[in-house]
Amino acid sequence: MCLRDANIVGEQRGGPGCLLKKDFYDEGPQPIHVVPERLAALVERTGFSKDEICKMYRAFKQHCPGGAATTNDLKPAYAKLFPLGDSTKYAQIVFNIFDKDGDGVVSFADFLVGMASIVRGSADQKLSWIFGMYDLNGDGHITRHEMLAIVSAIYEMVQNSQTIHRAVTRHVDRIFEKMDLDKDGVISKEEFMTSCKNDLTICDQLTIFDDFWW
C-alpha cells in the first residue's frame, strides 16, 4: 500500500497543519499519527519517482507505523549497528537534522526531503546538509565545541568513551587546522564548503558515519 493521494503531511493531533503541542508530551506517551503528504507533491519536492517514494514509504511504515519517527525509533537501529559502543548521542544528532521544526518527530516527508538533499542534491546541497549537522545551534558557524561534540559522538559509537578524549581532540585539531582558513576560531559555511571541495580527505572524515541513517 502506498501513500494516500488525499492529505497533506503535518495533519497531526489538533487538526490540519497543526503541530504537536508541548502539552501533548506532558500527558504521557501517546500514539503518534501523521497523515502523509500527497504523493504528487512529494514527487515535485524531492525529485524521487512515485515508485521510489512508495518503496521508501513502505519501509518507513514498517518501522514507524504511525507515519512519524522519534529518537526512540532511531536509537535501537544504531545500537545494533554499533553494539560495542554507545550510539545514543550520534543517533540524537542525526535525528535533529531531519527534525527541522524541532517538534520531536520526523514525518515521512521530513525524512524524504532530507534524503533528497543527499541522494538527489548537487555537491553544494550535499555539503550544506553535512554542514548543518555540525552547526548544532544553526548560527552559520561551526565552533570547536560543536565539532568536539559531533566527533566525540562518532568515536563513542565504536570505542569506550573513557579512552577517546585524546583521539577526539587530535581529530578536531586537524580539522580546524585545515578548515579554519582565517584562523578566527570558528569554521564558516564558506570555509567548510571550500575545504571539502579542495580536500576529499577532510570530507571523508566528516561524513564517515552519515550513510548509516539511510
TrEMBL record:
Does the record's keyword annotation contain Metal-binding? yes
Domain of life, per UniProt, equals Eukaryota
Q: Which GO terms describe its molecular function?
A: calcium ion binding
User: Residues in domain EF-hand?
Assistant: 86-121, 122-157, 167-202
UniProt keyword list:
Calcium, Metal-binding, Repeat
The keyword Repeat is annotated on this UniProt entry: yes
| Family statement | Belongs to the recoverin family.
Q: What is this protein's record name?
A: Hippocalcin-like protein 4 isoform X2
Where does this protein come from, organism-wise?
Answer: Cephus cinctus
Gene name, Swiss-Prot/TrEMBL: LOC107268670
